[in-house]
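Per your request, structure below.
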């Protein structure tokens, strides 16, 4: 049985419906500033790959790599944003970026 669009979460590829209300972050056990993560994600999708370094400069206790994939953020979002999906994607990018920096022996990389 197929779901209607209205019952589906907005795809993780957009984040465009985020109102930056911060409700999701208040339920995040990893204490990640999710609106900030979504902002970085939008900048990345707009072509700014350098924005990914902001993930390691976030002021919140947690950053995307600390996500435990509980799904609480997506479940609480009244705007239907798949916040967990976005955080998961950026966690992979953040992790890859860190690995690249270690393997290249550099403090900065091109992404
Ligand atoms: S993802 Fe949803 S709950 Fe989180 S800040 Fe955006 S609109 Fe608010
Ligand atoms: S899925 Fe990740 S980002 Fe979302 S509430 Fe859970 S720990 Fe936080």
């Amino acid at each position: 049985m197929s779901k209607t669009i209205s019952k589906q979460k907005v795809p993780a590829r957009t984040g465009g419906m985020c109102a930056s209300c911060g409700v999701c972050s208040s339920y995040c056990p990893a204490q990640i500033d999710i609106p900030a993560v979504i902002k970085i994600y939008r900048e990345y999708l707009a072509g700014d790959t350098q924005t990914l370094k902001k993930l390691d400069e976030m002021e919140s206790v947690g950053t995307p790599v600390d996500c435990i994939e509980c799904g609480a953020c997506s479940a609480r979002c009244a705007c239907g944003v798949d916040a967990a999906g976005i955080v998961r994607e950026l966690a992979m990018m953040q992790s890859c970026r860190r690995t690249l920096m270690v393997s290249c022996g550099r403090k900065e990389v091109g992404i």
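The chain is about 40% helix and 0% strand.

Regards,
D.
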